[in-house]
Amino acid sequence: MKNREFLMLAKVFDPKKHGIGGWFLSEKLDGQRAFWDGGISRGLLKREVPWANTNKDSRYRVEQISTGLWSRLGNVIHAPDWWLNELPCVMLDGELWHGVRGHGQRQILTRMIKTLVPGPDWKKVKFYVFDMPSPLAIFRDGRLNNPNFKKIFEGIRDWKYGNEIILDWEPCGLTHFERSVREMGKRLTGNVAIFHPQEQLPFQTSKALEIIQNKLTIVCNLNGEGLMLRKPESWWEPKRVATILKVKKLDDDEGIVTGYVTGRKTDKGSKLLGLMGALILDYNGKRLELSGFTDAERQLSPVDLHPDKDAFIWAAEHPGQEVPDRISSVKFPRGSAVTFRHRGFSLDGIPTEARYWRQEKV
């Protein structure tokens, strides 16, 4: 059985690899990803819905009821009934967003929509739709192996077609995005589900790249997150694909090394055991853990030839822990400065998606 994701995910745009002439361009919203199943599961117990993520549901005192609106990790989004009643009887993939760009706004949005009992803030939230995927694609068999969402998708298409609710639009096969754009423009006419505008780029690559750079500058100057690119003849697939690409502007900043966290075993293996997993930086008086290093850059060693056991052995025996002062990084000693790239800040002023870029030479 093939691996899959719950929803379709984008790769990062690389102008040296990706020819994007004639592709569709839209603003990348810094909201919360959501999937509307057309209402076919609305009112069912969550555990009765075959794609629901029930891994951590034992923590709830009251059994959850499906709203038909789902998060990227297959959890119920508890939108109010008046809001859900505005959604069309078609399957939608998009982003919940409150229309405000800028520093910390995603955390504010999360607080609005993550409550089990929906509040009045939902009046500010819209569903910006960027695709109307086919149920054949959404409910394709496969193994979902996300650390936070492990599930076997099998026979869900049969469950769907045994459901009494008939969708208003349901293509017989896979649908090219170009057709979905036309359908979204016709069908999404309400006040809650909004067709997220798509602009088709020129077919000449140089002109397309020029427009991308201009649009990216405009969006970033408005405190937006970036852009999305989509291939016209692509179709919706439940995996990370190169037919939808994200374009973001990176900022750079500097911090001082104060310590290290050892590597640990992950779902991708144990290659970081015994090595540095992350640098600990002092960033304007705040602690920032930084990743993005090569294996050579992750080497640890005793300080001043300390007679303690080998640094590699200590790190392997203490995964995911901050190292003692007697152990240092070979390349990044405490007190040295490093430059990192990131995409904005959290409400606490911590750089988000920070990755190592280069070492500053004093």
Automatic annotation (TrEMBL):
GO terms (BP aspect): DNA repair; DNA replication
Protein name: ATP-dependent DNA ligase family profile domain-containing protein
Alphabetized InterPro entries for the sequence: NAD_dep_DNA_ligaseB
Entry keyword annotation includes DNA damage: yes
Protein transport found in the keyword field: no
UniProtKB keywords: DNA damage, DNA repair, DNA replication, Ligase
GO molecular function (one): ligase activity
Signal peptide (residue range): none
